[in-house]
Design goal:
six-stranded parallel beta sheet, TIM Barrel, alpha/beta, globular, about 400 residues, single chain
Length: about 400
């Protein structure tokens, strides 16, 4: 009997070791993929233009997976070396705190929690197992540790002054990138508006009100009820406005979008997705919703994955951006890759020059490319991030 117990205990230890060592890598490798394709050539004209751009991407979930983001990875889409290689000036790193089982774009309940298992496999602190606020704070610390260990290659951005100082520095040194923190879904507040302040102090500068399910604040485009702002949600909008924290309408329901546009006194963004007029599904914005975001002074980040743009190649992204520009104007369109967001995309961060090539082929002018690849987002952040 004693030998059996020892054997069983040994087997359990081996299974746990495999769980901790291999499960996160396996899950990420399965979910965050680059589409197989023929090698893409980038013209000298596109390559020269790309090297002179200030590129901003409004959404990447790279913090979630536990990779060392200071090392160039062989899985996933983005890390500091690949961002620098792709000439990305600013990447928004978002905190994903909860996703449901059977995740889909149509209807999700919020009573299951995939991230719990990922947190367990990555050995996050026990406090994060049952608190979504603790998870967001943990991911903010992960970002801060990465930036501190980067020898200046990853610069944290929290304020208008931070951004201006960084951009001045980048004129002399293109071998650096910057990160700004966002949150994907107000479920990260654990239902308590008072949790907004510690998240703001941790460096989060924008937040979407929902993710894949309805929460205590608002309805999701993929939730059960898909309603609008709750009374608590109206107060959250006011509190975010007061702090200069940017509201992200990605993943929110049509009624939530209408309610926020009526309530918010500051510009809003749609960090990653597409437009129904170009790619018709409920995840994407209607023309009316897109125009409302533009009227607020906001930015619409066009995603890189098939549900956002109805295509698997880079030209599909360029066509979606052309539709957006024609609909809301060049000054309201940007990039919302959803890198490392459990999606398959045509290229990783190191190969963003392929998008510059596709935009040229789509007939965008040099000035238009400068605007949508990052100029618009830099202007928006310069005008809407908090001051010191």
């Amino acid at each position: 009997m004693k030998k059996i117990i020892v054997l069983v205990a040994g087997l359990v230890v081996l299974l746990l070791a495999a769980f901790f060592a291999f499960v996160p890598q396996l899950v990420e490798s399965t979910l965050d993929r680059v589409a197989a394709r023929a090698s893409s050539s980038v013209s000298p004209e596109a390559r020269a233009l790309h090297g002179d751009l200030e590129i901003v991407d409004l959404h990447a979930d790279s913090l979630l997976w536990g990779r060392d983001l200071l090392e160039k990875g062989r899985r996933g889409h983005a890390d500091v070396p690949r961002l620098i290689e792709g000439n990305v000036a600013v990447e928004v790193f978002t905190a994903v705190t909860k996703t449901p089982r059977g995740l889909n774009y149509e209807r999700n309940e919020g009573n299951s929690d995939n991230i719990f298992w990922l947190a367990l496999a990555q050995r996050w602190p026990p406090g994060t197992w049952n608190s979504l606020t603790a998870r967001a704070l943990f991911l903010a610390k992960r970002f801060a540790r990465t930036a501190a260990a980067s020898n200046g290659k990853l610069v944290p951005i929290r304020t208008v002054e931070d951004l201006a100082s960084y951009l001045q520095r980048r004129k002399e040194n293109r071998q650096i990138t910057a990160g700004l923190l966002g949150i994907e879904g107000a479920q990260a507040l654990d239902g308590k508006i008072e949790n907004l302040e510690p998240l703001f102090q941790a460096g989060y500068r924008y937040m979407s009100l929902t993710h894949f399910f309805d929460d205590q604040f608002a309805g999701s485009s993929a939730g059960v009820n898909q309603g609008g702002l709750t009374p608590l949600g109206h107060e959250l909008v006011r509190q975010m406005n007061a702090r200069g924290m940017i509201i992200d309408l990605a993943h929110t329901s049509p009624q939530t979008i209408r309610d926020v546009l009526a309530e918010s006194k500051r510009p809003v963004i749609y960090s990653h997705g597409g437009l129904q007029g170009n790619c018709n599904n409920r995840r994407n914005l209607s023309d009316e919703e897109a125009r409302g975001i533009a009227r607020s002074g906001g930015i619409i980040g066009i995603g890189f994955w098939p549900t956002a743009v109805c295509g698997k190649d880079t030209r599909a992204i360029a066509r979606a951006m052309r539709y957006a520009v024609q609909l809301v104007g060049i000054e309201h369109v940007g990039l919302g890759s959803d890198f490392d967001g459990s999606v398959t995309v045509p290229f990783d961060a190191a190969h963003l020059s392929e998008l510059t090539e596709a935009l040229l082929q789509e007939g965008f002018s040099t000035g238009e490319i400068r605007a949508v690849m990052g100029g618009n987002a830099l202007r928006f952040f310069s005008e809407n991030l908090p001051k010191e």
